[in-house]
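Summary of Year 1 activities. Much of the first year was spent building the evaluation harness for sequence design. The harness presents a backbone, in tokenized form, and records the residue chosen at every position. We chose the following record to illustrate the format because it has been used consistently in internal testing since the harness was completed.
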């Protein structure tokens, strides 16, 4: 170590801390604020320009005026539905309307409010009640009276009630449609009209396959007979899902009950002897012991309940039913062969025959069974007329009369081989009462 020099580990000097003045603090804040404003302006300009440019390329579109991205409506008014006050509920309906002078660029929102309160609901129920009351004037109570003797030869009488419907009134005769299974064993049939008239009727005709019975009542000398009106029928009917209906008669098992509902399904079919009938479905549940016809809200009958509907009530459309009823009322013969068909798209690629009717089953003791027609046969021609579908088959059948003999051509598959057969069939009469 050199003499005269002193070694020190720390050679630092203590310097007093500089103090910031108020002027320097203010200047710093001013610079920060200015830079923030400039950055915000630049960002906004860039956003607007990019939005206008990129929207032309479909990359993204600017939101409509008044709606912020990422913000959901916080009030009922913003979402298009205003809140209910008191007993009235208001629904806001918005319709777009172009502003004049700026078509296609901006949308003006026009609000329409439709108010509904308890008085409107009360009015609707009153109208429904009036419709039900009017339809019930054509509903009657059909009492099936069965008399007999027990094991000790004591006489007894049982009475079973169901609903009936006045479908026609001509001269002094009223024609009542009811359920066949409820009266087929009746010793006497008693009809009680809504107007208070009570009279005995007689079974005129029936269709066991549809479970329909036609009862006639003589009104000669009966007071108030002029007040008995038949139901109205809607001959041309196009079904749509959601269409409102009412069931009249005894849908819940009680006489003169009425149930509301809607059509829930279309394009249904109901297969009966020689016919494939159009059917729809409804949410109206019919009681096991109930009987009902179905009417639209104009008071027109649009269908009858298919037998064995189960949980989903099936309605057979009225147009074809009217054809059967007219023949039953007029005592006209109902030609039949006695087959049931199922939906069939044809098998031309395998049979070489277009169209045709595929036999699903053959009724016992029917003309079809007697002639030798079998399940699985495809009927493709009757008396020289090509059978393209069930409609063609029904049309040809309705042109015939009982006891007519027709030449039926069928395609039958036997032992994995197909062959064409010619079968003679004698047309029968399906009327229940001869």
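For this record, the design step produced the sequence shown next.
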């Amino acid at each position: 170590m050199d003499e005269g020099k002193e070694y020190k580990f720390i050679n630092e000097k203590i310097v007093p801390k500089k103090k910031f003045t108020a002027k320097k603090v203010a200047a710093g804040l001013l610079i920060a604020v200015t830079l923030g404003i400039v950055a915000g302006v630049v960002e906004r300009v860039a956003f607007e320009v990019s939005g206008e440019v990129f929207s032309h390329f479909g990359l993204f579109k600017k939101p409509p005026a008044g709606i912020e991205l990422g913000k959901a409506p916080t009030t009922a008014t913003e979402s298009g539905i205003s809140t209910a006050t008191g007993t009235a509920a208001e629904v806001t309906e918005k319709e777009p309307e172009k502003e004049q002078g700026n078509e296609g660029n901006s949308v003006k929102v026009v609000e329409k409010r439709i108010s509904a309160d308890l008085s409107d609901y009360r009015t609707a129920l009153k109208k429904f009640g009036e419709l039900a009351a009017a339809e019930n004037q054509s509903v009657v109570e059909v009492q099936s009276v069965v008399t007999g003797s027990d094991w000790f030869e004591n006489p007894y009488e049982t009475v079973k009630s169901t609903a009936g419907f006045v479908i026609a009134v001509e001269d002094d005769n009223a024609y009542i449609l009811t359920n066949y299974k409820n009266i087929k064993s009746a010793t006497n049939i008693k009809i009680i009209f809504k107007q208070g008239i009570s009279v005995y009727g007689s079974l005129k005709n029936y269709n066991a396959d549809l479970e329909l019975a036609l009862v006639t009542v003589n009104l000669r000398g009966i007071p108030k007979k002029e007040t008995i009106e038949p139901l109205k029928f809607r001959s041309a009917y196009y079904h749509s899902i959601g269409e409102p209906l009412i069931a009249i008669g005894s849908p819940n098992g009680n006489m003169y009950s009425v149930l509301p509902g809607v059509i829930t399904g279309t394009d249904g079919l109901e297969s009966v002897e020689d016919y494939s009938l159009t059917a729809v479905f409804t949410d109206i549940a019919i009681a096991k012991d109930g009987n009902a016809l179905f009417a639209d809200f104009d008071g027109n009958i649009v269908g009858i309940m298919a037998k064995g509907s189960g949980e989903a009530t099936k309605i057979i459309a009225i147009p074809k039913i009217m054809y059967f009823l007219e023949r039953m009322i007029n005592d006209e013969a109902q030609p039949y062969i006695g087959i049931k068909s199922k939906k069939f798209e044809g098998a031309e690629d395998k049979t070489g025959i277009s169209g045709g009717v595929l036999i699903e089953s053959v009724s016992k003791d029917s003309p079809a069974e007697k002639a030798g027609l079998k399940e699985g046969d495809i009927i493709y021609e009757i008396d020289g007329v090509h059978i393209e579908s069930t409609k063609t088959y029904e049309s040809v059948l309705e042109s015939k009369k009982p006891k007519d003999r027709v030449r039926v051509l069928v395609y039958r598959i036997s032992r994995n081989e197909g062959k064409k057969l010619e079968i003679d069939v004698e047309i029968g009469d399906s009327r229940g009462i001869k």
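The chain has a mean pLDDT of 81. Quantitative recovery figures across the full test set are reported in Table 2.
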